[in-house]
Amino acid sequence: MISRPSWARALAGTVIAFSLVAPVHAQDWPTRPIEDSVWSSAGGATDLVNRLMAKALEPHLGVKVNVVNRTGGGGAVAMNYVWSQPHNGNYWLGASEGMQTTAVMGFHTTKTKDWRWYMVAGAPGSLAVPVNSPFKTVDDFLAAAKASPGKVNVSHSALGSVWHLKGVALANATGTQLNLIPYEGSAPAMVAAMSGETAAVISSVSEQAEYIKGGRLRSLGLVEMTDQEFPGLGKLSGIGKAYPKLKDIPARQWVGFAVPGDVPADVVTKIDAAFDLAVKDPELKKIADDKLLTIFGTRGDASMKELQEMESALSWTLWDLKVGKVDPATLDIARP
Questions:
Q1: Per-residue confidence (pLDDT) for residue 290, from 0 to 100
Q2: Which residues span the membrane (predicted)?
Q3: pLDDT at residue 249 above 90?
């Protein structure tokens, strides 16, 4: 019988040991706190929902979920950070629908297909003005915009975000030229409007609710196709009823989180299970109702299908408007 060299025996032992240890490590996940990097500033819906979900997820994961705001570059700073970390499930991206346009905007090289998406909640968009604004109705606002093309400033979150696209849709549908100004999230965009830096803001009714109730903002209407009723706010009219072309640019808000698509399958299974339980958390639902958010609880194939369709529609819209920086065709994003 030929005896193996000592190095061969040692190598074999190492391989056997690794095969025994590696699965145990995966089974033990998570063994340390999870870091959730939110792309936008504190105070907006993405930040709020990620902090609510972190609290709801912790009992099911058995570790802390620490939320960190990493703003800048229309989401690129947070995306680059998460993508550059080990893809082991310990690093999450606090995300929103703006992530579906980062590729066409040249903010990040990844596309929707490269991540796993967890859609927690969302709310309709609202066009709001400071409470002391001379604009009392949508017609007042549009009359001023038509009288001074490109001079009426409207703040919104990052270029390519749903609120940017809602602004583009509003301008196109109403035949106006609005000066759309991006901010690093809805919170600073609303502050800009309340301080008089801009004449109006487009963000979610959820994000605006406390300022409307507190007498600092006034909604002129929803940048949507239908009227909706909200506790504490009453009925808000859908601007799309009078301007049906508003629907020509399909965009809806979602907020939640994502992990790189190549996170190990057994870790994903645990995240999925915790997510399914967390979105049913009574405290999460109570706060979501109070903040005028609708819980979606969508993940896996369902979220991938919806968000790839959104990526296609929004990317080509931005490219056709000459706002996009990278031709979607070169990104293998099919035209809808």
A1: 87
A2: none
A3: no
pLDDT confidence band for 16 (50 / 70 / 90): very low
Distance CA 219, CA 127 (A): 6
Beta strands (DSSP E) in 195-245 are 200-204, 217-222, 228-230, 234-236
Q: Where are the domains of the chain?
A: 32-122+253-331, 125-248
List all residues 6 or more positions away from 114 whose beta carbon is below 8 Å from its beta carbon: 260, 261
Contacts of 183 (CB under 8 A, 6+ apart): 155, 156, 157, 158, 189, 192
Q: Which among 137, 73, 129, 123 is positioned nearest to 292, based on CA atoms? A: 123
Range with lowest mean pLDDT among 198-202, 218-222, 226-230, 326-330: 226-230
CA distance 268 to 246: 38
Both tokens of 197, joined, read 């830096």
Q: Which residue has the tokens 């830096």?
A: 197
Intrachain domains 32-122+253-331 and 125-248 with the same fold: yes
Residues 6+ apart with CB under 8 A from 190: 128, 155, 201, 203, 207, 208, 211, 217
What's phi and psi for 153, nearest 5 deg? -85, 130
Q: What is the mean pLDDT of residues 130-147?
A: 98
Architecture of the domain made up of 125-248: 3-Layer(aba) Sandwich (3.40)
Closest CA to 252 of 166, 186, 141: 166
Architecture of domain 32-122+253-331: 3-Layer(aba) Sandwich (3.40)
Both structure tokens of 17? 């040991």
* Separation of alpha carbons 165 and 170, rounded Å: 8
Most confident of 9-23, 82-96, 248-262: 82-96
